[in-house]
Design goal:
Pfam families: C8. This protein is an alpha+beta fold. The chain contains 7 helices and 7 strands, in the order H-H-H-H-H-H-E-E-E-E-E-E-E-H. It has a 3-stranded antiparallel β-sheet, with no helix packed on it. Strands 1-2 form a two-stranded antiparallel ribbon. The chain starts with 11 loop residues before the first helix and ends with a helix. The N terminus and C terminus are likely disordered.
Length: about 220
């Protein structure tokens, strides 16, 4: 995205989307869509030079993105550096967001560079019982889906539950393989109105069969998820 403040700009969505496009040589959109009349956020030559060094390192032909850079037309590389410098001068702390967009564009070109976060000191902070995975599962196991074996969502980057944990209401917990005691208002009647197997709740469906449903809200269910 462009580091220039785009608030109020009628085409700000286009500017944000086009700033880091990685396109083939035949695509005329390789030309940057950023307006040259917009103010340059670089306050002085020193700040501009620092931004140039940082941004040129991203597209270093011998750097971590070398394979990807080799597939990109020179005009696109130059426009990336230009747009990157604008972003960096506007806010140097944006460098991880800048590199993230470039890494994603490279992935769309068929080049995955999972180690870029370490190379640019952009490690993702994860929560308790979570770990960062560059190519994590597209479908992370959840309380209701603990035994899930099919997933058609492609791998993705992010924070995932560590081995042995499953996600329940946003947190990573150790899954329970048994049902809680048959007590409480949700278990009235004989037989119980619902049962739990392998962390999945089943409600009566027809005569003697059960069908899985979403876990109802409530402290009791949340505690036993």
């Amino acid at each position: 995205s462009s580091g220039t403040d785009l608030t109020g700009q009628p085409n700000k969505g286009t500017l944000l989307g086009d700033s880091y496009q990685v396109l083939d040589a035949e695509d005329p959109r390789c030309v940057s869509s950023l307006n040259d009349d917009l103010p340059n956020p670089c306050k002085n030559d020193g700040e501009m030079e620092e931004a140039k060094v940082v941004c040129e390192e991203v597209v270093n032909p011998y750097g971590i993105f070398a394979e990807c850079v080799g597939r990109i037309p020179g005009a696109c590389v130059q426009n990336f550096v230009k747009d990157c410098m604008v972003d960096h001068c506007d806010n140097p702390e944006n460098i991880c967001d800048i590199v993230s967009k470039f890494a994603e564009a490279c992935k769309q070109e068929g080049v995955d560079v999972p180690m870029w976060r370490k190379a640019f000191d952009c490690q993702m902070e994860c929560g308790e019982n979570e770990e960062y995975l560059a190519n994590g599962p597209g479908c992370e196991r959840k309380c209701l889906e603990r035994d899930q074996t099919y997933c058609n969502t492609p791998p993705r980057e992010g924070c995932f539950c560590k081995t042995g944990y499953i996600r329940c209401k946003g947190a990573c917990i150790i899954g329970k393989d048994y049902c809680p005691p048959r007590t409480g208002r949700r278990y009235g009647g004989t037989p119980a109105r619902m049962c739990c197997m392998h962390s999945t709740w089943y409600w009566p469906f027809g005569g003697s069969s059960y069908s899985s449903q979403d876990i109802p809200d409530g402290d009791f269910i949340e505690h036993w998820c």
